[in-house]
Specification:
This protein is mainly alpha-helical. The protein has one domain. It is built from two helices and no strands. The longest helix has 31 residues. The two termini are 13 Å apart.
């Protein structure tokens, strides 16, 4: 199960890189760049945190 979430984390990181690249290429103001960077961070951080949580739950779960 953790492997699925780690794959989603990798996909999220790739999506974050692409979104940030296109945002920076098309932004006209600094506010747009900042908003794009924040959204890109969410694409990368949220799947990573979920993957870490699932991995920890699998290693420490007393029920198997």
């Amino acid at each position: 199960m953790a492997r699925v979430f780690w794959i989603l984390a990798i996909v999220g990181a790739i999506a974050a890189i692409l979104y940030l690249f296109f945002t920076l290429a098309n932004a006209e103001e600094a506010v747009q760049e900042a908003a794009g960077a924040a959204i890109s961070a969410c694409f990368a951080i949220i799947p990573y945190v979920l993957a870490r949580a699932v991995a920890e739950l699998e290693t420490k779960s007393p029920v198997r």
